[in-house]
């Protein structure tokens, strides 16, 4: 099995589970290995520090019977300022890998995104893999650079003669090792869970973009790993399909997320919630940059994964949030919190 992006947030959890639960050998490619240090000496794991820019790497990956591609730039704060880089990472590289897999006969499992459903409205219903209509903002709204590149990749995979493919569309996976803490091991604005966790650890106010009315359904990364095992076990019957991977039971607004995270953080720290700063509202374009727009609701239909794979995500929201926040607090404990007394 080959894993592209084995050192990323999802990739590192998948790699760990594969090495623990199976006897498979894994060839992993990534530019970063900090999340997978514990596996580098494992005999069944070969790590190559590279990306899909290198032709020889693509050729080698396509020698494996199953290739999972998790590599992507997927941080919304980069979609505006670095649109061309984002498009290269999310279209050019995967298309190159797909070409090689079509030639070699490998099964390519490609991670796309729930963001391909576009600029969804607040009252939009369940997002269905094969029938939902898709609308994006204007071409000048570069927020959609990522989503349009990902959508083009899906269309390319579906149209490529001879390719055995499956597409996975993650709906806001969260858990340990998600993204980074700005100024510590990354720059810019990470996705909401990491950004809220960073602010809580620092004693800063959580920032609600445009009031925090947008809704998301957060999914445990452990459920996502279980989904992947169901996919591997199912094999051929899952080929030629795109699957939403999400947890419709875990939907809430970002403002509600902020208040839940404040409560959980106070519990972890053993302090009164009143000591945790109140959230503040920020304007989306001022915060992220010109061209930022948002999906107001992202609610997955999950019946296809249930029917074909017998899979449904089960981890409740509070369990996911507490695990993620506890991990963040422990992992970044070197950063002193000036507002909340121990
Ligand atoms: C992102 C990526 O673009 C998707 O590719 C990816 O699949 C998806 O995350 C995901 O994790 O599955 P999005 O959900 O918009 O999409 O990413 P976040 O940055 O986590 O934002 C979620 C919501 O929180 C947005 O409404 C955003 O405006 C808001 N937000 C974010 C805040 O209110 N405050 C913050 O500090 C950060």
Topology record:
Elements: E1 2-4, H1 9-21, E2 26-30, E3 45-49, H2 55-61, E4 66-69, H3 76-81, H4 83-104, E5 107-111, H5 145-159, E6 164-170, E7 173-174, H6 192-202, E8 207-209, E9 215-217, E10 219-220, H7 221-234, E11 241-245, E12 251-253, H8 254-269, E13 280-282, H9 284-288, H10 303-309, H11 317-331
Parallel strand pairs: 1-2, 1-4, 2-3, 4-5, 5-6, 6-11, 7-10, 8-13
Antiparallel strand pairs: 9-12
The structure holds uridine-5'-diphosphate-glucuronic acid.
Task: Describe the overall structure.
With 342 residues, the protein is an alpha/beta fold. It has 11 helices and 13 strands. The strands form 4 sheets. The protein has a 7-stranded parallel β-sheet with strand order 3-2-1-4-5-6-11, sandwiched between helices. Strand 1 (2-4), helix 1 (9-21) and strand 2 (26-30) form a beta-alpha-beta unit. The structure holds uridine-5'-diphosphate-glucuronic acid.
Keywords summarizing the entry:
342 residues, 7-stranded parallel beta sheet, two-stranded parallel ribbon, 11 helices, 13 strands, 38% helix, 15% strand, binds uridine-5'-diphosphate-glucuronic acid
Offer a quick outline of the entry:
With 342 residues, this protein is of the alpha/beta class. The protein is 38% helix and 15% strand.
């Amino acid at each position: 099995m080959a894993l592209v992006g084995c050192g990323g947030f999802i990739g590192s959890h998948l790699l760990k589970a594969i090495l623990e639960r199976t006897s498979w050998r894994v060839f992993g490619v990534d530019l970063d290995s900090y999340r997978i240090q514990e596996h580098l000496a494992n005999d069944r794991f070969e790590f190559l520090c590279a990306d899909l820019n290198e032709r020889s790497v693509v050729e080698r990956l396509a020698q494996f019977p199953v290739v999972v591609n998790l590599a992507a730039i997927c941080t919304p704060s980069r979609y505006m300022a670095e649109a061309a880089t984002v498009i290269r990472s999310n279209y050019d590289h995967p298309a190159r890998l797909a070409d090689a897999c079509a030639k070699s006969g490998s099964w390519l499992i490609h991670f796309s995104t729930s963001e391909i459903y576009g600029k969804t409205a607040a009252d939009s219903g369940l997002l269905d893999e094969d029938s939902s209509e898709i609308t994006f903002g204007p071409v000048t709204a570069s927020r959609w650079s990522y989503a349009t590149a990902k959508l083009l990749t899906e269309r390319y995979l579906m149209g490529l003669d001879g390719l055995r493919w499956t597409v996975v569309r993650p709906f806001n996976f969260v858990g340990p090792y998600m993204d980074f803490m700005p100024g510590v091991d990354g720059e810019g604005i990470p996705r909401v869970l990491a950004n809220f966790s960073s602010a809580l650890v620092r004693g800063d106010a959580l920032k609600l973009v445009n009031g925090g009315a947008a809704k998301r359904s957060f999914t445990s990364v452990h459920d996502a790993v279980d989904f992947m095992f169901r996919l591997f076990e199912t094999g051929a019957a899952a080929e030629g399909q795109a699957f939403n991977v999400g947890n419709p039971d875990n939907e809430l607004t970002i403002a509600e997320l902020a208040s839940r995270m404040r409560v959980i953080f106070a519990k972890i720290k053993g302090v009164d919630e009143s000591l945790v700063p109140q959230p503040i509202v920020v304007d989306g374009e001022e915060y992220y940059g010109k061209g930022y727009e948002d999906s107001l609701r992202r609610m997955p239909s999950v019946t296809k994964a249930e029917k074909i794979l017998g899979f449904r995500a089960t981890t409740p929201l509070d369990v996911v949030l507490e695990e993620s926040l506890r991990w963040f607090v422990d992992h970044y404990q070197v950063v002193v919190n000036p507002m909340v007394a121990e």
